[in-house]
Amino acid sequence: MSVKYKEFEHIISSQYRAEQEFLAEYQKGGYSFQKPYVKLNPYLIAPLTALILFETEQPTTVSITVKGKEEAGNIRFDFPEAKEHILPVYGLYGNYENEIELALANGEKNTLEIKTDELPDKVKQPTLFSTTPEYFQDNMMFVSPTSPAMTAAYDYRGEVRWYSPINFAFDLKRVKNGRLLIGTDRLMLPPYHTTGLYELGIIGKIYKEYRLPGGYHHDQFEMEDGNLLILTQDPPRGTVEDMCVLVDRKTGQILKKWDYQQILPQYPVGGSGSQDQHDWFHNNAVWYDKKTNSLTLSGRHQDAVININYETGKLNWIIGDPEGWPQDMVDKYFFKPVGDGDFDWQYEQHACVVLPDGDIMCFDNGHWRAKIKENYVPAKDNFSRGVRYRIDTEKMEIRQVWQYGKERGAEFFSTYICNVEYYGEGHYLVHSGGIGKYKGETCDTPPSRYVGDDLHYTEFNSITVELKDDVVMYEMQLPANYYRAEKLKLYCAEDILTFGQGEILGTLGVTEKFLTLPPTEEGGMVPEGYGVKVGLEEDRIIFKARFEKGQMVLLQLEGEEAYSYFIPTTKRPFLAMCVGTFLESDDRAVEFPVSREGLAGEFKVSLIIDEKKYDTGLTLHL
């Protein structure tokens, strides 16, 4: 058969099966403190983790020390009193005989060895690293990639102590239950919009997937009650990255929506150098501020950080260069720079943060650093930086009170991605993660867009800096692009491993049907040259193939009722390739998911290609 077909198990199902297997093995019995059960990479996607299980006759605390290559690299954690001991092991080194020391409350000790495999090439090694163990201690710097690399965590020496081969997307945040929220690896809309978010324990277990009809991109925020702000869109209307939703943490249901088309004028108003009609706002960050009950949103393609009322969605203010905006909006919503110090507007910014005193921080990418094409600043002469603005919403005045990065010039310049973090007054992280050169020249466009042969001519770099009172206390450079950097500890008392199957929450919605069918003639079996692949997931059908640009393609599911889906073969020229890890090297490659919601029964799969109808030979039982 010319069509390849495969069924895919959801990672949550795979992990549950793996968990059942290792628990069954453990429950055969005979495991004690001196001879515990040890399982490396128990949840399949975190190779530098392990699990130790044993019982003691009396309740006791247990401390674990994962030995470093030197004493400063030791990672220690104390587990609460119990008889049944479930001990996650974090911070193993790759390709190493790791030594693990266990100690009971009575002083009894046991030392184990765990051998790990070599790190994959996609786990990048630092090209420059500088800090001290006294300063960085047992923290890890997590980075999530946008170029060919893997999500990984680096210790005080720049050694990798955690990574995952899963193609996670966008931001990685620790939430109140100690787990991580990160974008799924399941592509929903090209080039990088995924099905939603995973809630992930450091051990690699996925407890929940939060799915959204419009998919997920860029950022999320945990509210005080645990519900989640998630950035999304409504694809059928033809625009992207211009909506935010509030999602119920327990059910995955959408509780509230904010639609920026109801708040702001669209293309070409306020347009940055990367704006188009399809991606007019490009929302890449969201922050809730309890003091003002407001949302602050970063819109890369309007060079604007905006603030809206949480309840009503009404616009409060805009930080940005007012060039190109209607005068009535400039008068009402924009700030006027004041003060005698240096001041620069931010352009195509990322990662807006509201500080405790109301100041606004963001990463000012500075892409083009102008609103008018004739004034664009080329990358080789440009700069990116972390910046802190002080705003007076009564007088509508703004002053720049701090920045870092301008002094480093093009070396620190990122056209896209990046973040800042606030750890306290004078204590900041500035992550310039999208640095690149193409054929030796500093990139004027995101380097993640380069695939295939172009990769040979592309140099990727990422610079992560932590500053305290304007002194650089930490710097790491990696030869890849990373969306954001987050400093976290591996062990967290709230991140408690619980057994049982994870949950798939929310909905992907019903995939839009194509209603007008062209006249067709029979074409027989679909030609092999199209490279058609069909994958069946628990909640989706995945269609992949190769077509020339502009070919007319419809996927048909024919059962008691027929469903037709339009397959786009003309790719949009995305000017903000924020994550390039889903890109295919073949320009003809097409991937299209169909939600299984609303589909039940037996369906014959056929294709209409340029007015010929082809049989795939496949019948799906849904």
Layout of helices and strands:
Elements: E1 4-7, H1 11-26, E2 37-40, E3 49-66, E4 75-90, E5 97-104, E6 109-115, E7 128-130, H2 133-136, E8 139-145, E9 151-154, E10 160-164, E11 169-174, E12 180-183, E13 187-189, E14 193-200, E15 206-216, E16 220-222, E17 228-232, E18 243-247, E19 254-259, E20 283-289, E21 294-299, E22 304-309, E23 315-319, H3 327-333, E24 336-337, E25 350-354, E26 360-364, E27 385-392, E28 397-404, E29 419-424, E30 427-438, E31 441-442, E32 458-468, E33 471-478, E34 482-489, E35 503-506, E36 521-525, E37 533-536, E38 540-546, E39 553-558, E40 562-566, E41 589-595, E42 602-609, E43 612-621
Parallel strand pairs: 1-37, 15-35, 24-28, 36-43
Antiparallel strand pairs: 2-3, 3-4, 3-5, 5-6, 7-33, 8-9, 8-34, 9-10, 11-12, 12-14, 13-14, 14-15, 16-17, 17-18, 18-19, 20-21, 21-22, 22-23, 25-26, 26-27, 27-28, 29-30, 30-31, 30-32, 32-33, 37-38, 38-41, 39-40, 39-42, 42-43
